[in-house]
Batch of 2 targets.
Target 1
Amino acid sequence: MVFNQPKIRIKDIAEMAGVSVGTVDRVIHGRSNVSKLALEKVQKVLDEIHYVPNHYASALASNKVYNFAAILPMHKEDSYWARAEEGLYEGVKRYTDFKLSFKVFRYDQFNEESFEQQARSLLAYDPCAVIIGPIFNHRIMTKFTQKLENKNIPYSLLDSYWADLNPVTFYGQDARRSGEFSAKIILMAAANHKKIALFKLLGEGRVASRQQLDREEGFRKYVKTHSPETEIVDLNLYAYDKDGMKDSMFKFFTENSDIRYGLSFNSSIHVIGNFLKDNMPDHPKITLLGYDAIDANIKCMRDGYVDFLVGQHPQHQGLNCFRSIFNSCVLHMKQEKLHYVGIELIMPENLDFYKD
Amino acid sequence: MVFNQPKIRIKDIAEMAGVSVGTVDRVIHGRSNVSKLALEKVQKVLDEIHYVPNHYASALASNKVYNFAAILPMHKEDSYWARAEEGLYEGVKRYTDFKLSFKVFRYDQFNEESFEQQARSLLAYDPCAVIIGPIFNHRIMTKFTQKLENKNIPYSLLDSYWADLNPVTFYGQDARRSGEFSAKIILMAAANHKKIALFKLLGEGRVASRQQLDREEGFRKYVKTHSPETEIVDLNLYAYDKDGMKDSMFKFFTENSDIRYGLSFNSSIHVIGNFLKDNMPDHPKITLLGYDAIDANIKCMRDGYVDFLVGQHPQHQGLNCFRSIFNSCVLHMKQEKLHYVGIELIMPENLDFYKD
DNA sequence: TTTGTAACAGTGTGCGCACACAATTATGGG
DNA sequence: CCCATAATTGTGTGCGCACACTGTTACAAA
């Protein structure tokens, strides 16, 4: 039997210490104008009883308005970041009983100046806390977080993490380990087949995020260790050139007609799947693995053209990230810092139960 | 930009309707002593504005004590139910700002009379809401939930679900689908090997839960459909007879020396793994799949004797189950009813990120 | 008309806390 | 010793709501 024991209130502490609630309040909040004697009396009681305030009553009484902000990469409707952002909104919605506002600033992942510009706007907005979907460039990130720290604005990181930053919380996946995980799966599926295609869909001529690089690194390391005889064949595709992409794929699958397994480290595996479905319907089955259960990938999986997806619950990440910073700022609750989310395998068999 | 728009309070409604807050309060709570005219005026305003109360202020003001109860199977320290129960406690702990108590009643899964006895104690405790870890016997379950419904006590189900019951919420896994999932994984791992061992660890001479039966059913169906030539070899083990178990395993692995793949549908796969590790160290590798990332299984996986685990986040299930019934009872928030948790694959590569 | 009673409506208090403000005490200069 | 001022402490109000209580009105019986 668990009983949340009758909670000690400020009033009780005041009584025990023989002072008024005002004094206890001042001590608890470290406000000035407390005599040494009174402070000692209160402190003694506090030391004994381990006071935990009623966070909800506290927030109710303080009646403050909290302005949260996020700075995230621009994104398409059906994407990791779209889901993560939805999660953030869901978090806001969960706390309609409090006075919150939430503003999202979006930057172009391929344009560092755009990040700095949005960062400036964000700082001008003067939020009480910030959620960051980090930009690739470490120096620019540090510059920004430094500014936040100088202004005493707490921040949380979403998706990728740097050890030298000091966020309130981090929510994201261990990218390298998730690359190893993908390797294990695709090698298992491939069994004795020793050739694997690695599709790289490049946004502006380069990989957008550190996450993708780390996944690939983990993947290559794992394959090298566990199946050194397996050959990895790369195919680079440039998203801004639709026709060129199609040609490249034709050429690739014709030249590498023995390819039966392939993967990609971002959420675009549906591009390959749909290409095969629409343009090479007679090609022998190619087993595909990709990242993120976005709608396009899910559809492609239901059609039978994508076989494995590695999921990371972006919406949960967003929701929990918001929740953590809310708990920290509004309810003054201490938060666990690092939250590496699970590395989840999605297949047609469990797709229905993968919910964001 | 999202702004939680300035919330409309009871006071505002009163003003708009031209009545006092008391009257609004009576209308909102459906209390009596409201004239038709006043009711209409308030109702009109309510219809226009879609009032959502401040749940936290409401709970604070009502200052009620809530007694929750759970009825769960007895369990060992390191088990699915132990984790689920921890999750429930965590839920209680999260709401120390409210006046809650929580009492757990434990019954013997193999003794229906024991369930009925605990159910009686529970009813005598007169809780405001109940969490049920269902007993196998459908008739007994229905009898119990019927009693709860008669007393207007809401209940939630944990782990297994019956469509003809009407719980506030359900948290658990779709057992049949999870069996199919296991089949897919083990068939993929087995590649061209066409023999799979099915280990059944029986507590009191029979399988304890419907979940296990359903998993097996899903598994067999999937194998039959996707790999009809695969042979499934059963091994029954009786937990109460340790020596007999060991003998059975020796005999089994000697007679079926070509077995390379095996699985079990409860959390006891570590028994097989540890047997192989301790007693047949020279036996060729046997790939094992089991359920639940309990400590014994995790250890066995780290030792390299269990390869796959199907997880279901029991602690999350417990926590969320408690949270849902708390939200429903205390904060009067509407709850989504069915929560099928994900079917998760755990391997050494993502084990570190599988957290409860 | 008066009076009793039921139906209805409005006010006040308190949940636990934050914070403004009032009251009290201490300190020091004249 | 007195008074101005600062330092300290205590009290009151309100956050949004629930609920008890008091006050008001209507209406029927006497």
Target 2
Amino acid sequence: MTVENLVVDIDSLDGPLGHRVYSVLRNGILDLTFHPGMILRKGALCEQLGVSRSPVAEALGKLSSEGLVDIIPQSATRVSQLSLSELREESFLREAVEVAAVAKVAADRNDDQLTRLSRNLRLQALLAEDRDYQGFFEADVDFHSLIMEFTGYPKVAAAAGQLSLQLRRARILLLPKEGRPEETVQEHQAILDAIRAQDQQAARAAMSAHLGQLITRLTPLEQQHPTYFRPS
Amino acid sequence: MTVENLVVDIDSLDGPLGHRVYSVLRNGILDLTFHPGMILRKGALCEQLGVSRSPVAEALGKLSSEGLVDIIPQSATRVSQLSLSELREESFLREAVEVAAVAKVAADRNDDQLTRLSRNLRLQALLAEDRDYQGFFEADVDFHSLIMEFTGYPKVAAAAGQLSLQLRRARILLLPKEGRPEETVQEHQAILDAIRAQDQQAARAAMSAHLGQLITRLTPLEQQHPTYFRPS
DNA sequence: CTCCTTCAACTGGCATGTTAGTTGACAGGT
DNA sequence: ACCTGTCAACTAACATGCCAGTTGAAGGAG
């Protein structure tokens, strides 16, 4: 395992050094370049990133408070492992926030918002047809972000993302065999229809049903990637 | 302004020094000992707490990522100010989570949980009668914490607290003139009744109505404490 | 009197030396 | 062969020195 590729990134960003290190590590953890359970050696990170221990320590501290790394006092720092119970909690929280968001958007939506959602949905259909799973994944994320953005509460999307960091890592694991983009598009379509009809109840129900799919598909992962999960 | 009183606290806690400093500062900010907008001088904090700059910097970094302090690079660190728009966002998020929680609890509740909620509610009635606003405030917080605890998701209560840190500070401002504990008790009673009846819709509605009260009572604060609010 | 320039003092950010605690392996005894 | 006590190497945590950017006040020009 090497992180030589990250050395390039480090000075292509701006802002305080500590924050750049934080971003690099965070991205690496979220896209599983640093896999769950991996031990992070401060000394090695300093050397490979070409910075001193202060910004690295600061970055690891923030990641720890986000739950992305576990710091064992005086001993070691490791990328936090996944756990089904934690994924279920995050799923619950994410559903709570997104259901509330879609209800508000259904009540307040304007034509421009409908247009942007509709455009994103057509893009999803195209990507699904082309079997471009990576692109589809991003369009999917965008769809949900758009809805939260349309609440008029700028921090809501960020908060929802913060609440479901583990979920985001777990989703990467089932990316290759996505396999059900068509169903996803239909579920998204149902959500958009409810928003267009300004039917709050239907919007809640559609979003809830859609998000409920994820946790069932996540359950088998614990067997498929046992080393990525916290021993229970 | 002095923080001499905190010097006693610092070694009465345990764990890493950085985390102790973090706790002390966090508590001070949340109970408005450090009022919104106040400038925090790293050097002064180090001297008064009797520690070096490393743990203080670490603590301020975490507080910054929580939004409790604003760090102006190369210049100053200040306790973050309140803003009505931010309070509205947090109110929205808090309502989303607590409404989802109460619906789940209404579905799953057992007798022991009903007993504990009922006991807390009787305590609230007593404290309201005695005009013990401080005690009532704590019982109120406990009531909501109990519901979130009963979801079976241990992190939900913590997440909800994390999402509404500004809200928590703002509530302190209207503590002295609480004035409506009786209405609050009745709203709590309605929530408990819905939980007992396992009526999810009623539970959602009761919780939503209850939490909706807060933001209207918060609105006048911007005039009453202009220095605590971000200039808009 | 007002505005601009300059400079000194202060701040946060970073690097690095030092300390204390944990861990795992090795050696010695059972 | 196995258990146990000891020790060496490693880690995170802390202290401190240094630097660069910001700010605000003082002084000079208009």
